[in-house]
UniProtKB/TrEMBL annotation, chain B:
Domain of life: Bacteria
InterPro entries recorded: DUF742
Species this chain originates from: Actinomadura rudentiformis
Name of this protein: DUF742 domain-containing protein
Length: 226, 120
């Protein structure tokens, strides 16, 4: 069951978070519209930490299973002898107002967990790609999938525990081949204020995508420059 | 029972819990569809159904939170929830985004999300 234990082992928080589950802080009775933001990134990058720093409940964990038949669509050789593949993921929530509640999901970025992505991304506002500068390559697959899904996203570099000196945001942008119009910010996922700022950056970015001029101008400039 | 313990005994327990059903229409329930119990558990009801009705008796609970609390995979919980919905024991509040035709949420929603986040 390597696929299952993988993503939580290196991230503090969710162990033991099962007890209490829905009981701690109930949703408001009037809650009727739940929204989603997905935080995606490599193993141990701090996704659960970020969820926990802004969530009104302790991060909860659950899992989804994919039967062998479904897994075969991806790459049957990798799961030849498994009856099912299981992926664990963490989540938290923020009640925004009387009716709206925002769910934050920490999604494992590894390719073998592709099957959970559709469920997590379906109807999501957008995504945060959380990056550890020591393992930038872990971000390549999530970035590729987000672009494939046409899911708007921002990239946040989790600076809490990196090498010293750390690469600049410009160097990170180059290394990840990020378009100029993708917001890239520093953060410390342990801090509520910092994680909140990342989410606000994402939502502001989403509002700019409603403005066709803001959306297409950078691309047009790039084309003209070539 | 931990998720890990459940893993070791699957799929037998999952098969039993769902009566052997394994697939549902994926669009029927979202991870964040909110569930509200409409009545108390009936005598003789399957224990998982009873637990769900108790969990969402007073306040709505999202599908994914029920899954976490029941320690059952999301897809299994969805099957159980559809049973309860079809028999009138629960009602569900679908996320409005589930009906969206584009990936981008409407501006009014985004503004309200911003207000909510800024007041954190």
């Amino acid at each position: 069951m390597d696929s299952k234990a993988s993503d939580r082992a290196a991230e503090p928080g969710p162990a033991g978070a099962q007890a209490g589950a829905a009981g701690d802080v109930p949703l408001r009775r009037t809650a009727r519209d739940a929204l989603k933001i997905v935080i995606v990134g490599g193993f141990g990058v701090g996704k659960t930490t970020m969820v926990g720093s802004v969530s009104e409940i302790r991060p909860l964990s659950t899992e989804e299973v994919m039967t062998k038949a479904g897994v075969g669509i991806d790459d049957p050789s990798r799961v030849a002898d498994k009856r099912t593949t299981t992926v664990a993921f963490d989540f938290g929530r923020i009640s925004l107002d009387e009716h709206r509640v925002l769910y934050l999901f920490g999604a494992p970025g590894q390719e073998r967990f592709w099957f959970i992505w559709d469920q997590l991304f379906s109807g999501s506002l957008g995504a945060v790609v959380l990056v550890d500068t020591r393992r930038l390559e872990d971000s390549f697959y999530p970035l590729d999938r987000l672009e494939h899904h046409k899911m708007p996203f921002v990239v946040a570099v989790n600076r809490f525990d990196g090498p010293d000196p750390q690469p600049s945001l410009g160097q990170v942008r180059d290394a990840l081949s990020l378009d100029e119009d993708v917001p890239l910010v520093d953060c410390d996922a342990r801090l509520r204020g910092s994680s909140k700022d990342v989410l606000i950056t994402l939502v502001r970015h989403l509002t700019t995508l409603h403005d066709p001029a803001a959306l297409h101008a950078p691309a047009a400039i790039k084309e003209a420059a070539q | 029972m931990s998720l890990r313990a459940l893993n070791h005994e699957e799929p037998d327990r999952l098969y039993t819990v769902t009566g052997g059903r394994s697939r549902i229409d994926d669009d029927a329930l979202d991870l964040v569809t909110l569930v509200i119990a409409e009545n108390d558990p009936a005598p003789g009801m399957q224990s998982e159904h009873v637990t769900i009705l108790r969990l969402c008796r007073h306040e709505p609970v999202a599908v994914v939170e029920l899954s976490s609390h029941l320690r059952l995979p999301v897809s299994v919980v969805k099957i159980l929830l559809l049973d309860l919905r079809d028999t009138g024991h629960i009602t569900v509040r679908h996320p409005t985004s589930a009906n969206a035709t584009t990936h981008l949420a409407d501006l009014e929603t985004l503004k309200q999300v911003l207000v909510g986040l800024e007041s954190l």
